[in-house]
């Protein structure tokens, strides 16, 4: 009995010592760091996701000011938080070849739906990124614009039925953006606006929730990447994965059988599939790979969730702020009315001409960046020209939320002030302190599309309605910890008032 107890104690002691052995990592390298405690590391919230990641990193960001960068520990893994904009520029852009990967999850062959642009690393990411970049050029967006308008009309009819009601604005804008992305990228008429209980949308909503089991798996795989094939991380169930693969297969078959060409995202993927291997057209890819149906479905999945959730989130934060700032809302309504009158209707050109709208959306994206932290992995050790040495495999965190709320860069950061983005003021923003879409070759591929659908949604609503706060409006708004993106912890409730 004594021997058995001694062995167990000995093993536990060995495990503990081994676990905390990494906690001296940053000290040994002379990098300032946020101390760690067994077992969670620098802050339990980075593992448990109980608090919004932006808030947790921000506490450290403030405590370790003005260090240009500092170390933290997530469980026992050392990570580097970079707070200096010049170093951020090196990582995201100038020295991109050393920081190409995100390294967030180690993909196993079993979790096919996760093999998408956001998660892929290395040559596979590069090959796909080059091929998919033409998806949303401004020329293509212009051609797609009538589809935006058609969804906007249905959205407007839905809003008419809600006049003088208190509405969950994220729920409504989410229906609109789900229809826009379905019709523009996949040629699907989902009509989520009128039938919100749509399977594809529900899968998308589930896909960005951080569930307990998933958090646990992410933590384990970060520590022991070799287990990734035994513990595939499922953001959605196997049935939902099959549903998406079948759906994409059907669309592809229909198009090929009936020679339908829509010049959309699916067409681009079909062209890549029919070409055979990616990377066989003179580009120097190490390992050419095939565009399989599963790989196509994975790209569609990420375009769908990234396409609808992010933009509806920006729209709902924007409308919340407009409800609280009636003066800003009036000025925006005036611009919308005048520009649409001048152009005769809601056109692509009219939206591009709305300067104040652009300022309002930019300020919303500053105050509520959809992605609170960007992540990169150092793939080749490097000494930056700013003098810092970064070792291979170091995980880098760019604290977007903190930069956007740092009074050094944005005075009175809690104030909603679109003037920061006026023509005169925009140029004084310090480069790499404003990163709502990331930066560099790995920045958001859907930025233009996301901005356009966000703007069309806000314009559609304000053409006929005003928004006001009501007793159920949460002031101030608190961001919750249970979502991969920035989302209010409670529904955003505001009141819709008819303008005419
Ligand atoms: C307002 C809307 C949107 C916001 C705020 C947003 C934000 C972001 C951010 C911050 C990143 C990470 C960038 C980085 O690491 O540097 C990202 C990546 C990405 N976004 Fe968006 N996004 C939006 C809309 C969209 C749309 C509409 C799509 C597609 C239809 C999309 C698809 C993607 C993809 C595929 C990536 C990964 C890119 C890569 O790793 O190469 N996003 N987005």
From TrEMBL:
Highest taxon of source: Eukaryota
The family this protein is said to belong to: Belongs to the cytochrome P450 family.
InterPro entries hit by this protein: Cyt_P450, Cyt_P450_CS, Cyt_P450_E_grp-I, Cyt_P450_sf, Insect_CytP450_Detox
User: Pfam families, per this entry?
Assistant: p450 (PF00067)
Annotated Gene Ontology cellular component terms: endoplasmic reticulum membrane
Listed cofactors: heme
Query: Where found, per UniProt?
Result: Endoplasmic reticulum membrane; Microsome membrane
The Gene Ontology terms for molecular function here are:
heme binding; iron ion binding; monooxygenase activity; oxidoreductase activity, acting on paired donors, with incorporation or reduction of molecular oxygen
> What is the name of the protein in this document?
Cytochrome P450
User: From which organism does this entry originate?
Assistant: Nezara viridula
Main localisation: endoplasmic reticulum
Keywords noted in UniProt: Endoplasmic reticulum, Heme, Iron, Membrane, Metal-binding, Microsome, Monooxygenase, Oxidoreductase
Q: How does it sit in the membrane?
A: Peripheral membrane protein
Q: Indicate which residues the UniProt annotation says bind heme.
A: 444
């Amino acid at each position: 009995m004594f021997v058995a107890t001694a062995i167990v104690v000995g093993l536990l002691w060995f495990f503990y010592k081994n676990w905390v052995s990494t906690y001296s990592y940053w000290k040994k390298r002379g990098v300032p760091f946020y101390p760690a405690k067994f077992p969670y590391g620098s802050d339990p919230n980075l593992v448990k996701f109980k608090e919004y990641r932006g808030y947790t990193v921000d506490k450290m960001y403030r405590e370790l000011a003005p260090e240009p960068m500092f170390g933290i520990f997530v469980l026992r893994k050392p990570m580097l938080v970079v707070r200096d904009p010049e170093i951020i520029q090196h990582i995201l852009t100038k020295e991109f070849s050393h920081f190409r990967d995100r390294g967030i999850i180690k993909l196993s062959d079993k979790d096919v739906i996760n093999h998408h642009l956001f998660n892929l690393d290395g040559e596979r990411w590069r090959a796909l990124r080059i091929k998919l970049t033409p998806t949303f050029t401004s020329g293509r967006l212009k051609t797609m614009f009538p589809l935006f308008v058609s969804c906007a009309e249905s959205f407007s009819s839905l809003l008419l039925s809600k006049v003088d009601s208190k509405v969950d604005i994220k729920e409504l804008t989410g229906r609109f953006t789900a229809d826009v992305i379905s019709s523009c990228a996949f040629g699907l008429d989902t009509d989520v606006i009128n039938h919100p209980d749509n399977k594809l949308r529900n899968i998308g909503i589930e896909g960005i929730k951080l569930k307990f089991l998933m958090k646990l798996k992410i933590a384990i795989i970060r520590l022991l990447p070799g287990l990734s094939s035994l513990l595939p991380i499922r953001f959605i169930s196997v049935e939902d994965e099959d549903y998406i693969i079948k759906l994409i297969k059907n669309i592809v078959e229909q198009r090929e059988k009936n020679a339908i060409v829509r010049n959309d995202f699916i067409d681009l993927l079909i062209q890549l599939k029919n070409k055979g291997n990616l990377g066989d057209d003179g580009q120097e890819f190490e390992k050419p790979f095939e565009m399989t149906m599963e790989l196509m479905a994975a790209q569609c999945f990420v375009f769908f969730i990234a396409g609808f959730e992010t933009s509806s989130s920006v729209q709902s934060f924007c409308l919340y702020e407009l409800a609280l700032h009636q003066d800003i809302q009036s000025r925006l309504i005036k611009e919308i009315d005048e520009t649409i009158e001048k152009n005769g209707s809601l056109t692509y050109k009219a939206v591009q001409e709305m300067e104040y709208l652009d300022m309002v959306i930019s300020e919303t994206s500053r105050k509520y960046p959809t992605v609170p932290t960007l992540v990169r992995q150092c793939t080749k050790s490097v000494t930056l020209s700013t003098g810092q040495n970064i070792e291979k495999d170091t995980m880098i965190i760019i604290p977007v939320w903190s930069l956007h709320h740092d009074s050094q860069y944005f005075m009175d950061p809690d104030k909603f002030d679109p003037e920061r983005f006026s023509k005169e003021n925009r140029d004084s923003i310090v480069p790499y302190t404003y990163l709502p879409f990331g930066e560099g070759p790995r920045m958001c591929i859907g930025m233009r599309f996301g901005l356009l659908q966000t703007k069309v949604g806000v314009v559609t609503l304000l053409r006929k309605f005003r928004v006001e706060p009501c007793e159920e409006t949460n002031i101030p708004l608190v961001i919750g910890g249970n979502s991969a993106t920035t989302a209010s912890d409670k529904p955003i409730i505001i009141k819709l008032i008819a303008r005419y």
